[in-house]
Amino acid sequence: MSASNATIYLKAEQNVELQSDDVYLKDIGKMTCSDEAILAKVKTIKLHRFKEGESKRQVISVLKIIEEIEKLYPNVTVENLGESDVLIERINVNRHKGPIQFAKIVFVSAISFFGTAFTIMAFHNDIGINGVFSRIYEMVTGQVADGYSILEFSYSIGLAAGIIIFFNHIGGRRITKDPTPIEVEMRVYERDVNKALIETADREGKTIDVQ
Amino acid sequence: MFSKWIFLAVLGISSGLVVSGGVFTVLLAVGLIPRFAGKMHIARHVFVLEEMVVFGTLVGNFLSVFSDYGRLGEWILSRQLFGQGTTNGIWHFISTILLILFGFFSGIFVGCLALAIAEMLDTIPIFSRRVGFRHGLGISILAVAIGKVLGSLIYFTQEFFLYSG
Fold it and tell me: A99-125 burial by CB neighbour count: b if 16+ within 10 A, else e?
């Protein structure tokens, strides 16, 4: 090996999903180096192999990665700009397809649909919305409301407009290019889960780490 | 008269806007939908779920605000849409299925919502830290679930709702 003093810049990702059993360094993040030969060699370092009956989820410490690189090139400096622990997951390709997937979407859609319908109805029932409306109508017009008034209609329009503005889309069309609130929340949730998994592995001593 | 109508319209629209903002901020802060999507590995289709949230709210709003226009069963029975004489039987069957669907799915939603709110307020972590237990978190969650089911059954069988309000 040449006694090169190059620096490898590594940007490790927090969560990596793999479809093969072997985990190479190039899978866990992006990296760059002024010496292309070192870069090409380093990228093919094998970090882990998922065995049968073993957990499909592993956490690799960046220290372990640095150790592996230094075994190969003792004089190389490794600069990590990304995460300090990487969660690697072995997934099956066809897990995300097929009728089961469709059934799941239908199931969760039904929960979302009926659940929110129930929530808003329970809320309206709780505050006695028709009573509030007829009282306001009486106060403003001085007459007793017979049946539904403009108040109910405008409230419904306002509610619909509020939801559409809030969620930023209607009927599959986005109003602005921003991600929708649930898409944002989804990422936050994902990050929290990854962090919890990494910390649990660390506490149980299951992280693939230097000795 | 006209100015009063405009006043009422503005009042209605603005209260609708604020109510939807409020209700959905709570729903979102609890993070229920992302969790469902995460559990079911359908994060890529979260868009569909949001649409369902929107339409669910619109339908629920219609049924509770304009409840006089939402009497589907009465309307179908009075017109005998599925033929004279047979409608009652058929509609009884369909409406039972609809009720089961509504009850089942809204029950899941409310059950998740109740625990999600408890979790958001860190009740369980704080409590388990105070009493200092390390194992049996699963059992305590199961106990919460059983307690909720029992409470709900007692509520309905003992007709608590007759005493409310």
Answer: eebeebbeebbbbbbbbbbbbbbebbe
Whether residue B113 and residue A117 make contact (CB cut-off 8 A), yes or no, is: no
What distance in Å separates the CA atoms of residue A174 and residue A164, rounded to the nearest whole number?
A: 10
Say what the pLDDT of residue B165 is: 54
Give the A:B interface size as CB pairs under 8 Å.
Answer: 233
Tell me the domains of chain A and their CATH numbers: 7-94 (2.60.480.10), 98-202 (no CATH)
pLDDT digit string, tens, across residues B59-108: 998 988 888 887 888 888 887 777 777 888 888 888 899 999 999 999 99
User: Residue B150 belongs to what domain range?
Assistant: 122-165
Q: Does A158 contact chain B (CB < 8 Å)?
A: yes
Q: Which residues contact A162 (CB under 8 A, 6 or more apart)?
A: B16, B17, B18, B19, B20, B21, B24
Beta strands A7-12 and A77-80: pairing type?
A: parallel
| Number of domains chain B contains | 1
Q: Is A124 close to B66, i.e. CB distance below 8 A?
A: no
Is B139 contained in some domain? Answer: yes
Here the tokens at position A138 are: 């009486």
Q: Which two tokens stand for residue A17?
A: 């999903």
Question: Does pTM top 0.80 for this prediction?
Answer: no
Residue A137 in contact with partner chain B when CB distance is under 8 A: yes
The alpha carbon of residue B12 is apart from the nearest alpha carbon of chain A, in Å, by: 4
Residue B29 contacts residue B120 (beta carbons within 8 Å): yes
Cα separation, A17 vs A21, in Å, equals: 11
Query: Which of B46, B63, B67 is facing A183, going by the closest CB pair?
Result: B46
Chain B interface, mutation test: which of A91, A94, A111, A187, most B Cβ atoms within 10 Å? A111
